[in-house]
Amino acid sequence: MRPYDLMLLLRTDVEDHKAFLDDVQALVGTLGGEVAKVDVWGKRRLAYPVEKEQEGFYAIFNMKLDPAQVVELDRVLKLRPQVLRHMVIRLDE
After folding, report:
1. CATH classification of 2-90, choosing from 1.10.10.10, 3.40.50.2000, 3.30.70.60, 1.10.3720.10?
2. What is the rounded CA–CA span in Å between residue 8 and residue 24?
3. What is the pLDDT of residues 16-51, one digit of tens each?
4. Do 66 and 5 meet the contact criterion of CB atoms below 8 Å apart?
5. What is the CA angle 63-68-70, rounded to 5?
6. What pLDDT was estimated at residue 79?
């Protein structure tokens, strides 16, 4: 497994951000990974509108995941309507 950072930008109208972040953490677990830390930045104003949204809710996951499972994580997050943007960054070991 390799270390990764996952940056999530969520819609601000999501009812319960904590529950959604717990779901993402559970998803990483079902893919065989482990989340070391979740850094919640909260609601921030965006530099430009993203899908007609002016504000977004930011969260950063520090995790370890198998490289083959990153593709599946990316696919699942693209299908979630709550996610405005996401980015997975591979870290140096």
Report:
1. 3.30.70.60
2. 10
3. 899 999 999 999 999 999 999 999 999 999 999 999
4. no
5. 45
6. 95
